[in-house]
Amino acid sequence: MRNLKTVIFAGLLGLFSAGAASAQDMSPEGIWQPANKESRYKITYCGDDNTKLCGIVDWIQPEHQNAENKQLIGTYLFSELPKRSENKWRGKITLRGHTIRGNVTQLSPDKLKVDACMLIWCEEVTLDKFSDL
User: Fold this and answer.
1) Alpha carbon distance 4, 46 (integer Å)
2) Which of 6, 38, 82, 84 could form a disulfide with 90, with the two C-beta atoms 3.0–4.6 Å apart?
3) Pick the CATH number of 28-131 from 2.40.128.520, 3.40.50.1980, 3.30.1300.10, 3.40.50.10800
4) If we measure between CA atoms, which residue out of 84, 25, 77 comes closest to residue 52?
């Protein structure tokens, strides 16, 4: 009976440890890119209390750069988005030259979803983690 309790306790401890590890792995900080790999975004915590989310256009694939989008490098995709719930931030996002309200949601340690709508036009982009900071 004592061995069974030890096995159950060890199993529960392993489950809780795995849960804690995966929660730690859910940091949105890093370099992220869309599936087409044409651009990359540096996402960090920011703001006075370091709980808001900032995303900067970090890189555009050279063969896809033109006079218009080259100017976007170093500009904010979003700045100081407040956290709304676990792994979700909401605020102003700049997509295709328009600043609109949207969300950044971390789906997994390696996936982020950025979505925003203006009237009937909506845009959703899933980003894959390219690297850690």
Assistant:
1) 48
2) 84
3) 2.40.128.520
4) 84
Residues 62, 13: Cα–Cα separation, whole Å: 49
Which residues, in sequence order, are bridge partners of residue 90? 103
Burial class (CB in 10 A: 0-12, 13-18, 19+), 65: middle
- What tens digit of pLDDT does each residue of 20-71 get? 444 557 999 999 999 999 999 999 999 999 999 999 999 999 999 999 899 9
Distance CA 7, CA 118 (A): 54
pTM of the model: 0.79
Closest CA to 33 of 25, 42, 24: 42
Q: Where do the H-state alpha helices sit in the chain?
A: 2-24, 67-70
